[in-house]
Amino acid sequence: MAQELKATARQIGPITVLDLQGDVTMFAEAELTRAYHLAVDSGARDIVLDFAGTEYINSAGIAIIISLLTEARASGVSLVISGLSSHYQKIFRMVGLTQYADVFDTEDAAVTELKNRAAAEPA
User: Fold this and answer.
1) Do residues 79 and 39 make contact, with C-beta atoms less than 8 angstroms apart?
2) What is the chain's mean pLDDT, rounded?
3) pLDDT-based confidence at 1, cuts 50/70/90?
4) Alpha helices (H) along 6-58
5) How does 38-47 read in b/e, with b if 16+ C-beta sit within 10 Å?
6) CB atoms within 10 A of CB 50
7) Considering the entire predicted model, what is its pTM?
8) Residue pair 105/1 in contact by the 8 Å Cβ criterion
9) Which of 55, 68, 89, 118 is the most buried (most CB within 10 A)?
10) Beta 6-12 vs 15-21: how paired, if at all?
C-alpha cells in the first residue's frame, strides 16, 4: 500500500534539509513542490533532499525530482540528494540524475559538502 509523502523542513545552519517520509510517486508532487517552494521563499539557497525515510520511488517520482532540479538550477539554488538506498542510487545514475545533482550516502556528508562549497565561494 502506498504511503503518502510528507516533507518536513529543518535548518542546519544556513542549509535547509527536507526530510522525506513515504513514497515518491505522482501523488507526492504537491507535497514535494510545496516544501521546496516554502524553503526557497524563506531564503534557502542550499537544500538537501533527504530520502532516508522513503522506501519507494517510481518514474513519476523521478520526474518530479527532475523538475525540482531543473527549477533549482535555473534559480541558483544548490539542491543535493542524500539517504537513497543503494538500489535507488543505481537507478538515479542509470537515468542520468547524478549529472544534475550530487548524491550522498548520508545527510551528514551532503551538509558537509554544502558547507565546504559555501566556504570556498569568494566573498
Assistant:
1) no
2) 95
3) low
4) 29-41
5) ebbeeebbbb
6) 25
7) 0.94
8) no
9) 68
10) antiparallel
Nearest to 110 by CA among 37, 28, 52: 52
Task: Residue 14: count other Cβ atoms within 10 Å of its Cβ.
Answer: 12
Amino acid at 84: L
**Which residue type occupies 65?**
I
Tell me the domains of the chain and their CATH numbers.
6-105 (3.30.750.24)
Among 2, 46, 45, 113, which Cα is nearest to 31's? Answer: 2
Comparing C-alpha atoms, which of 7, 63, 48, 12 is closest to residue 31?
7
94, amino acid identity: M
Residue 114 has pLDDT above 70, yes or no: yes
Is a pLDDT exceeding 70 seen at residue 19?
Answer: yes
